[in-house]
Each structure stands twice: as structure tokens, then as C-alpha cells.
Design brief:
Number of domains: 2
Radius of gyration: 25 Å
Strand content: 15-25%
Number of helices: 8
Oligomer: single chain
Shape: elongated
Order of helices and strands: HHHEEHHHEEEHEEEH
Length: 298
């Protein structure tokens, strides 16, 4: 038996179809919202956050679909995410070209005003003509469509910008969906394990390598409660996993946490994983929950 949880790599057909259908529908809706936001809020720096939001929102939905479809093959989910992510990029280009082809400019100079409208039939025509779509993108690349400090990016630089945009969308979706596929799943009960972050912090583990070895050998008595004396004092965070109907599906993850304060006094955390999805017995599960499950009363 492995010390750590190992995904079974099973991909139910119904779950795969649900993922692809739900993912593409979500990508289409988000592509529409994203392009409209870019069109009517033409601030390049804000558009970066729109792009990141596109990827993360798509990833959040894909994560739900991975869980609903019980997809527990990280590599399989990676392939599905790439397919949906590329579809999302294709769709957002289709929406953009639809608005561009339907746009009209009146006036000149500072008085110029550009209006557009959405056409479902035009979008369908664009999406079903990938060759013509690519030709349009190449033409746009030669002239550019937006400016930064009176400079209009074109050519190689614009290709790089578009590539980064695609990577953000696909990457954001990948990070969330892939992490779900790695989480503990009970093959016996056919269900995901529930995650619980224990309320009481654990003492910071200075030597992560030796601590990992100790925990792998069952020395959980080395974990001690952490009582903070300052906001920036490091600590460790303990997460437990248990399948509701399978007592043999129990795991833990332990993270070291460091906190820093900025000039305004606002805190931010950074974490490093000491162990992830380490298999534990029912006795250890109950002991850890009893010791770290609740904060001490004042």
C-alpha cells in the first residue's frame, strides 16, 4: 500500500462528455462577456485582469465538472482542459471578429465614435470557416487594433501578446481543474473525500525533509499546537480528508505558512507543502482532529 494517495486514473465516459459539453458552453458564455468587456472598456492594463478572470472562472467551472463527473485521472483531465481551453480561445476570437466586422465608425479624430452589434449568424459563419478566420487574424496582426502610449503593437510583438493571453486563459483553467483530479477519491464508495482544514494551527516545521520522514513513519506526536505571539510568526496548517462512506479513505496534507506585512499593514501568506495526501489510520485521523480541530477557548 502506498504512503500517499494515488489517483486511479479512471475517466467515466459520462463524466468526460459532461466536462466537454459543460466546458464549451461555459467557454462560449465567458468569451462573449470577456470580448464585450474588452470592447467597451479599452484599457489595456485592466484587460489583463479580465483575461485572468476569464481563465479562473472557466477553471472554477471545470473543477466543478471534474468533481461531478468523477474524473480522477490528472493526465486525462489535462487533455480535456487543453481541448476546452483552446475552444475558449477560438470562441473569443470568433466573438471579437463578429463585433469587428459589424462595427461602424462615424466622425473623425477625437470625435470618432465606433459602434457595433452582435450577430449569431455571422458568428456561426466565422466559427465554421477557420481558414478565413486565420486570414482575418493575420490582417489584424499587420495593422493592430489597440494602442499603448500612442504606439500600436503589430507583428511579432502582437503575436506574443496574443500567445500570453491564450496561455493565461488555458493556464487558469488548468490549475483549478487539474488540482481537483488529484484530490483523494474512494474507489470503494465511488465518492470524493471531504476536505477539512483544522482550525488550530500547528507549530512551524523548521526541517521539512526530516519532518516529512517522521510523518511518513507515523510520528504524529511531533506535531504541536501553535500559539501565535505575532501576526508574522510562521505556523503550519493541517488539512484532513475522509470519504463519508469509506473508513479506509483518509489522508492529510500539511503546509508550512509564512506571513508578511506590506507598508499598509496588510498581510499576505505564502505556503510550502510538507506532505500532501499522506494516508493515515482512523485512530490518527481522530487524534489529529481532537488535538487541532478547535481553537482553545479564551
Amino acid at each position: 500500500m502506498s504512503l500517499y494517495y494515488q489517483p486511479s486514473n479512471r475517466m467515466p465516459l459520462g463524466g468526460v462528455l459532461l466536462f466537454l459539453l459543460g466546458g464549451v458552453v461555459t467557454a462560449a458564455v465567458l468569451a462573449l462577456v470577456y470580448i464585450y468587456a474588452e470592447w467597451y472598456i479599452p484599457f489595456v492594463y485592466i484587460n489583463v485582469f479580465f483575461c485572468l478572470g476569464f481563465g479562473l472562472l472557466l477553471g472554477a467551472v471545470l473543477m466543478i465538472l471534474v468533481r461531478a463527473g468523477k474524473l480522477r485521472s490528472p493526465r486525462g483531465v489535462l487533455i480535456l482542459v487543453l481541448l476546452v481551453g483552446l475552444a475558449a480561445v477560438y470562441l473569443e476570437w470568433g466573438v471579437y471578429l463578429t463585433l469587428l466586422f459589424n462595427s461602424e465608425t462615424t466622425g473623425t479624430g477625437r470625435d470618432a465614435d465606433t459602434s457595433t452589434s452582435f450577430s449569431t449568424s455571422l458568428l456561426a459563419s466565422i466559427l465554421t470557416s477557420p481558414g478565413q478566420m486565420w486570414e482575418a487574424i493575420e490582417k489584424i496582426n499587420k495593422t493592430g487594433t489597440w494602442s499603448v502610449k500612442r504606439t500600436t503593437p503589430t507583428g511579432v510583438f502582437l503575436w506574443v501578446v496574443w500567445s500570453i493571453e491564450a496561455l493565461i486563459i488555458v493556464g487558469g483553467a488548468y490549475l483549478l481543474a487539474y488540482s481537483q483530479a488529484e484530490e483523494p477519491f474512494s474507489e470503494l464508495a465511488n465518492e470524493w473525500a471531504d476536505e477539512e482544514t483544522l482550525a488550530h494551527p500547528v507549530g512551524y516545521l523548521q526541517d521539512e525533509a526530516s519532518s516529512r520522514t517522521a510523518l511518513e513513519s507515523g510520528q504524529f506526536h511531533l506535531l504541536t499546537p501553535h500559539l501565535a505571539t505575532s501576526k508574522t510568526e510562521p505556523f503550519a496548517r493541517l488539512k484532513l480528508y475522509r470519504a463519508p462512506n469509506d473508513a479506509t479513505c483518509q489522508y492529510l496534507t500539511l503546509e508550512n505558512v509564512t506571513t508578511t506585512l506590506d507598508s499598509k499593514g496588510e498581510s499576505s501568506e505564502s505556503t510550502t507543502t510538507v506532505v500532501q495526501y499522506l494516508a493515515i489510520s482512523t485512530a490518527i485521523y481522530e487524534d489529529l482532529k481532537a488535538r487541532f480541530g478547535t481553537l482553545p477557548t479564551a
